[in-house]
Design goal:
single chain, about 280 residues, Rossmann fold, 6-stranded mixed beta sheet, 5-stranded antiparallel beta sheet, 8 helices, 11 strands, about 30% helix, globular, ATP binding, ABC transporter ATP-binding protein
C-alpha cells in the first residue's frame, strides 16, 4: 500500500473480501425495566464503507457497546435496520467478528489451538486450516508463538492472539469493544500501532468502541461521537490523514480538542429518564 491515495481514502483501499459495507438506518434500542422503557439508542443512522476503520466514542452508558452487539447480531431486539452489504443482520454469523476488552483465550490451549477454535464450525481440510492459522498468527506478529500458552504471553500479545482468532474466519467486519482498555499505557500505544498495521494488511472493515479520544483519532478514518443517554450521533469527524499516522500531527490535536469539547458539553435533550413502555412496531 504505497499509494498515499489508498491509505487516505477507504473507497480506494482494497479489502480482504471486497465487501464489508455496513448501513444502519433509524436504529433505536430500548430496555424494559419494571414495565417501563429506557431508551439506550435513538435514531442512529450510519453508513460505513468497505475496508473503513470507524472509531466510536462517547460518555459511559451512551450505548456504544450495545451498538456493537447489535451489529454483530448478539442482540436482535431493536427497531430500525442494520444491513451488511445487501443482507439484513439477523443473528450472529462468521462474516462478523468481535474482540472484547478481555482477550478471553482458553488458558489450557496453545495460541494456535485458541485460533483454531474459531474454525470449528467450518469443514476445512487440515492443510487449509493449518495454513489459515499460520497466516493469521503471522499477520498479528505471533508466528513464533503458536505453541505458547496464554500465560506465557504479555497482555499485548494475548490481545493480538484474540485478534488473530477473530480474523481467521476472514470476516467482512471486525467489531472491537475497548480492545486495548486493559493494557498499560505504554503497551497500549504499541498495540495501537500493531492494530493499525493489522488493519492495513487485512483490509477488513473495523468498528472500534473506545473511551480514548487519542486512540480513536490515531486509528479511525472517521470518529463517531455519541451523546449521553439516549445514545445519538452528535457528530461524525473525518480524520483526513493517511495511514500510518504521526501522533504529533497538529490536525489530530485540534480534532481531539473539538471532540472533548463535544463530549463535555452540557446535555441539551432527553436524559434517558424511564417512561411508560410504548407499543412497538417491528420492521
Amino acid at each position: 500500500m504505497s499509494d498515499p491515495r489508498i491509505l487516505r481514502d477507504p473507497a480506494l483501499r482494497p479489502t480482504s473480501t471486497g465487501t464489508g459495507a455496513v448501513r444502519i438506518s433509524g436504529l433505536s434500542k430500548h430496555y424494559a425495566i419494571g414495565g417501563k422503557a429506557m431508551t439506550v439508542l435513538d435514531g442512529i443512522d450510519l453508513a460505513i464503507r468497505p475496508g473503513e476503520f470507524v472509531s466510536i466514542v462517547g460518555p459511559s452508558g451512551c450505548g456504544k457497546s450495545t451498538l456493537l452487539r447489535l451489529i454483530v447480531g448478539l442482540d436482535t431486539d431493536y427497531d430500525g435496520e442494520i444491513r451488511l452489504d445487501d443482507a439484513r443482520v439477523a443473528g450472529t454469523g462468521l462474516e462478523r467478528g468481535l474482540v472484547f476488552q478481555d482477550h478471553r483465550l482458553f488458558p489450557w490451549m496453545t495460541v494456535a489451538k485458541n485460533v483454531e477454535v474459531a474454525l470449528l464450525n467450518q469443514k476445512l481440510p487440515r492443510e487449509r486450516r493449518d495454513r489459515l492459522i499460520a497466516e493469521h498468527l503471522a499477520l498479528v506478529g505471533l508466528a513464533d508463538f503458536g505453541d505458547a500458552y496464554p500465560y506465557q504471553l504479555s497482555g499485548g500479545m494475548a490481545q493480538r492472539a484474540a485478534i488473530a482468532r477473530a480474523l481467521v474466519n476472514e470476516p467482512k467486519v471486525l467489531a472491537l469493544d475497548e480492545p486495548l482498555g486493559a493494557l498499560d499505557a505504554l503497551t497500549r500505544v504499541k498495540v495501537q500501532a500493531e492494530l493499525q498495521r493489522i488493519w492495513m494488511e487485512a483490509g477488513t472493515t473495523m468498528i472500534m468502541v473506545t473511551h480514548d479520544v487519542d486512540e480513536a483519532l490515531f486509528l479511525g478514518d472517521r470518529v463517531v461521537v455519541m451523546s449521553s443517554r439516549p445514545g445519538r450521533i452528535a457528530r461524525i469527524v473525518d480524520v483526513d490523514l493517511p495511514h500510518p499516522r504521526d501522533r504529533a500531527s497538529p490536525l489530530l490535536h485540534r480534532l481531539k480538542d473539538e471532540i472533548l469539547a463535544e463530549l463535555t458539553r452540557e446535555p441539551r435533550e432527553d436524559d434517558g429518564t424511564l417512561v411508560s413502555f410504548p407499543p412497538r412496531i417491528r420492521n
